[in-house]
Write a structure and sequence with these properties.
Number of domains: 2
Number of helices: 3
Largest sheet: 4 strands, antiparallel
Number of strands: 10
Low-confidence stretches: none
Mean pLDDT: 84
Helix content: 10-25%
Strand order of the largest sheet: 1-10-3-6
CATH class of the largest domain: Mainly Beta
C-alpha cells in the first residue's frame, strides 16, 4: 500500500511541476532540474604509473663511451603530474683530479624534456655527480612528451688505484594518471 501512495505522490508532484511550467511560474530548465535525478559523479582517483627507467653505465677507458637516446612519454588527458627523476654519478672527473690526471674529454650528461608542441620544458646539463633529484610537472598537457638523453663518460678498472670507476646515470619518469 505504501508503494501505491508513493507513486500517487510522485504523479501529483509531476503534474504540479508541469502546471507551474505551463503557467510561467517555473522555467523549462527549472522543470528539467526538478524531474531529472542527478547521480553524483565518483571522485577522480589517480594512480602512479612508472613509464620507463633508463640506466646508462660507461665502460670506455681509453676513449669515452657515449650515449644519444630519445624516449617518448605518452601523457593521457587529465594526468595530474609528470615526475622526471634522475641520479647522475660522473665520478671519472673526480677520480682524475685526485690522481692528478687530465681526461682527454670531459664527462657530461644532458637531459632535455620537450612538450608535445616541441618546446623545451626543462633541460639539465651535468658535469659533476648529482644526487637523486626530481623535476615536477604539474598538470602536463596531453600528448607525446620527449626526453632526450645524451652522455659521455669513462668507465672500467683504473690501474693506478686498481678500482672500478664508471660514469653512469639513471632516469625514470612517473605519471600520476586518472585510474
Amino acid at each position: 500500500m505504501d508503494i501505491v501512495r508513493a507513486r500517487v505522490l510522485l504523479v501529483l508532484a509531476t503534474v504540479l511541476v508541469l502546471l507551474a511550467t505551463n503557467m510561467g511560474c517555473l522555467s523549462i530548465h527549472g522543470m528539467r532540474d526538478l524531474l531529472v535525478i542527478k547521480k553524483s559523479s565518483p571522485p577522480l582517483v589517480y594512480q602512479k604509473n612508472q613509464v620507463f627507467t633508463s640506466i646508462w653505465k660507461a665502460n670506455g677507458i681509453v676513449r669515452p663511451d657515449t650515449l644519444a637516446d630519445t624516449k617518448n612519454i605518452l601523457v593521457k588527458p587529465g594526468t595530474r603530474y609528470l615526475d622526471l627523476t634522475y641520479n647522475i654519478a660522473l665520478v671519472s672527473g673526480v677520480v682524475a683530479r685526485q690522481i692528478n690526471y687530465t681526461l682527454p674529454t670531459s664527462p657530461y650528461v644532458t637531459l632535455r624534456l620537450r612538450t608535445p608542441t616541441g618546446e623545451v620544458f626543462w633541460e639539465g646539463n651535468f658535469t659533476e655527480p648529482t644526487s637523486k633529484t626530481t623535476e615536477h610537472v604539474s598538470g602536463p598537457s596531453a600528448g607525446k612528451w620527449v626526453l632526450r638523453m645524451e652522455a659521455q663518460g669513462y668507465g672500467g678498472t683504473i690501474p693506478i688505484i686498481n678500482q672500478d670507476v664508471n660514469d653512469q646515470f639513471q632516469v625514470w619518469v612517473d605519471l600520476y594518471e586518472p585510474k
